[in-house]
Every structure is written in C-alpha cells, then in structure tokens.
Write a structure and sequence with these properties.
single chain; alpha+beta; OB fold (Dihydrolipoamide Acetyltransferase, E2P); 33% strand; 368 residues; five-stranded antiparallel sheet; Rossmann fold; six-stranded mixed sheet; 9 helices; 20 strands
Length: 368
C-alpha cells in the first residue's frame, strides 16, 4: 500500500486564489495518516491558517482535491467533515457556564442528557475544570478558557482536530503547560490533529511531522529531527532553531571559503564535483549555534575559527555569545561556565559534520 493510499487526509494540489487575484496557497500537497499530529508553521501571511480553514470547510478550495479517508470532501460542510476546531480567540459563549459551553455541541447533535453529563464530567476531569463548571468564561484565566475551548472540541469525539494558534494569547508559563496538556490529550484520544502556529518551539515539541510554509508554498515536510538537522534550504535552516542557524555569505575559491580572517578548507565537507561546480561562486556557510566548542586546537575533522566577542547573554542553563569574524556576525550557544573564556577574542571549533553549505542564489542546501 502506498503512502497516499494509506492516508486518512489527503491534500492534492490545493490552491487558494481570492477574487482580487491574490494567490494565498500554491499547489499544497500532503498526505496525513490517521492519528498523526501535524503542525503547520511559518511566518505571518505564509498561508498556514488559510490551508487549515480549507481543511475545515470554512474557506472554499480554488483548485485541487481534499480527501477524507479516500473520499472527496471539497463540497462537504464543516459538520459533514466531522471536524472540531479550536480557535485563537477561544470562541466561548460568554453567557453560558463552563458546563454549558462544553455541552453545547452535543446538545445540538441531540445527544441524550445523561450521556452529555457523563462526557462533560469526564472531559472536565481530564482538563482540570471540574471545580469551574458553574463559572462563566469571564471568571476564568486565559489558560482555563483555553482548556474549555479544547474541551469543547474533544468532547464531540470526532476524528479530526484543527487548532489555529490556540496558545498565542497565553503567557509563556501557560503556553508550556498547555503544550504538554494538548499533546497528552492527543495521545489519549488518538484523533488526527492539525495545529497551526508561528512558534517553532511549539512545532518542535508537539509535532509528529512539521510542514514549514513561506509565501503560500511548502518549503519542507519532515519530523522535528529532520527539519533541524537536515534543512533543505536557508529559510528552513533559519526558521527552525532558537537561536537560528548562523548563515554567513562567502565565496568558494580553491576549495576554501574565507570568513573574516579564517580560511576554511571544505574538501571534506563538499564532494569534488560540487567544489568544481561552485568554484568562484558565492555560497552560504551555515552552522548551528550550539554545534561549537571553545578551543584553539582541532582535529582533522574540525574547523577552527577566530572571532571577537561583541555581547554575551547568560540564560541560566546556557549562554549566547554574539561574535564578529571580520564583517560577519554570528551567535554561539555555549555552557555558561565558559563565558570567562570568551571575554574578548577567542577561537572555536566546528565539527565538519555540523557544517552546512547552501547555494547563494536558490538557498538550497548542497549535499555533502
């Protein structure tokens, strides 16, 4: 059975073109297995929420096919798709109690009151809302309101959950708590979940697979590990990771690039064919901030770079060092106990396995 045949949700060449001609989503292709937790991530305006709304049936699909369990769903309304959605704004009924907010969808479906009460109490217990069932939304904190919104979705026992930036209105501590709660709920329900965020930390910690988008196009689809360690282009490399990957323009000449006063031999980083192809061409030299060691000596499998410290940030469990190498700037993430070694000028090493080279014009990563 092929991956497409095994897909629970299938988006085939999905496009969204508005009446004014704006093309919001271009040829979006994705197959999602039953029970997967998929995260759409990207900057504002990249098309991620528009794609989610097309899946929900809240936006018409201009071109392409959307299939649920192998059946075309383009013309089906939201309720026919058996989808529950959690919005950024919570969308709770302010005049209703928490109990009635949770029960409302089931009441509309004509579910028996005894069954409704049983489901409400079970959902409230899962989300820690048992003591708040008589309260109105205005008497709840932001985190509690978000729990009610999530509860209203999971209580319906549908097969597909859609979440559109549900944590963006919460403070940092509440976001961490709700991230783990949503992940746990997903495991318990086994529902297929599509989650939209601009926060790459949410994407990395919650997703089975991540879809990175930019300007309406998919840039890369993969597991958090794949996106972090094998980005296909400079956009993904710079978007995933905190701090982001250092991306430094350089010219490749005689198998070497020059960064500040450092001349780096790439003969064991790029194959001979690529070295010849990119001779005298501009490339992007990339490395992750944490993929370094403060050292003046290096093995044959490491590169040594000299730099100057511009600024340091102590974060507790780690420290960021902002450096310059000639006119080029970069960020290093190191053990905080090593800050004394980086007061002014120092050298650091990068394993050649941790070096990335990208095409300057296309942004695509060059295979080693």
């Amino acid at each position: 059975m092929t991956e497409q045949e095994n897909a629970y949700l299938s988006l085939r060449n999905i496009n969204k073109i508005y009446p004014n001609g704006f093309h919001a989503v271009h040829n979006f292709n994705l197959d999602i297995k039953k029970g997967e937790f998929i995260v759409f991530v990207g900057p504002s305006g990249c098309g991620k929420s528009t794609t989610l709304r097309m899946i929900a049936g809240l936006e018409n699909i201009s071109k392409g096919e959307f299939l649920i369990n192998g059946k075309l769903a383009n013309e089906k309304g939201p309720r026919e798709r058996e989808i529950a959605m959690v919005f950024q704004s919570y969308a709770l009924y302010p005049h209703m109690s928490v109990y009635d907010n949770l029960a409302f969808g089931l009441t509309l479906e004509g579910v028996d009151e005894d069954v409704i009460e049983e489901r409400v109490m079970k959902t409230a217990k899962i989300l820690g809302l048992t003591d708040y069932l008589d309260r109105k939304p205005r008497a709840l904190s932001g985190g509690q309101r978000q729990r009610v919104a999530v509860g209203r979705a999971i209580i319906r026992k549908v097969g597909i959950f859609l979440m559109d930036e549900p944590l963006s209105n919460l403070d940092a501590k509440q976001r961490v708590t709700m991230r783990s709660e949503i992940t746990q709920i997903h495991r318990e329900t086994g529902a297929t979940t599509i989650y939209v965020t601009h926060d790459q930390t949410e994407a990395m910690t919650m997703a089975d697979r991540i879809v990175v988008m930019k300007d309406g196009y998919i840039q890369q689809v993969g597991t958090p590990y794949e996106l972090y360690f094998n980005p296909v282009n400079t956009f993904v490399a710079g978007f995933i990771g905190e701090p982001p990957m250092n991306l430094i323009p350089a010219v490749l000449k005689d198998g070497c690039i020059t960064v500040g006063e450092n001349k780096l031999n790439l003969s064991s980083v790029m194959n001979d064919k690529l070295l010849k192809e990119y001779e005298n061409k501009e490339v992007i030299f990339g490395f992750r901030p944490e993929a370094v060691a403060l050292s003046t000596s290096a093995s044959s499998e490491e590169l040594v770079l000299a730099c100057k410290t511009e600024l340091t940030e102590l974060l507790g469990d780690s420290a960021n060092i902002y450096i310059t190498m000639g006119e080029r700037q970069a960020i290093l993430k190191v053990d905080p106990h090593l800050l004394d070694e980086a007061e002014d000028g120092f050298s650091f090493t990068i394993s050649k396995k941790s070096v990335y080279i990208f095409d300057k014009e296309t942004g695509l990563r060059l295979e080693k």
